[in-house]
């Protein structure tokens, strides 16, 4: 079926060319806007930084603000698909996904435990951190 909603047989009977676009494994389309995912590290999410993401026309350099949240969207204005019967281009929305490592080095684990000891807004518990009688948390060392 065409984007216009015409079935191929109708397009042929009107002597109109038609084509069907294959689905992308990278981009999702919403009218003139496109959406894609960007996977970043925990350090990039917390501290900010830069990343590169494929765009429709070129690779896009993205500035990651410190404290970005999982599933937060970054809007790249005018980096989408040309608008039909109008001027300009749609936008490219990049949805941030945070990669959580499955394995940590001993140093990374020690740093995460140290960070977890200072966290004050934890719902529930953190493995390796025990609450003390004073309400402070400790690794039990």
Automatic annotation (TrEMBL):
Record Gene3D superfamilies: Urease metallochaperone UreE, N-terminal domain
Entry GO terms, CC: mitochondrion
Xref: InterPro entries: Apopto_cytoskel_mod, DnaJ_C, HSP40/DnaJ_pept-bd
Keyword flag Zinc: yes
A Pfam family this chain is assigned to: DnaJ_C
GO molecular function, one term: unfolded protein binding
Annotated keywords: Chaperone, Metal-binding, Repeat, Zinc, Zinc-finger
Any GO BP annotation: negative regulation of apoptotic process
Domain of life (superkingdom): Eukaryota
Domain Chaperone DnaJ C-terminal: 20-101
Protein name, per record: Chaperone DnaJ C-terminal domain-containing protein
UniProt lineage: Eukaryota, Metazoa, Chordata, Craniata, Vertebrata
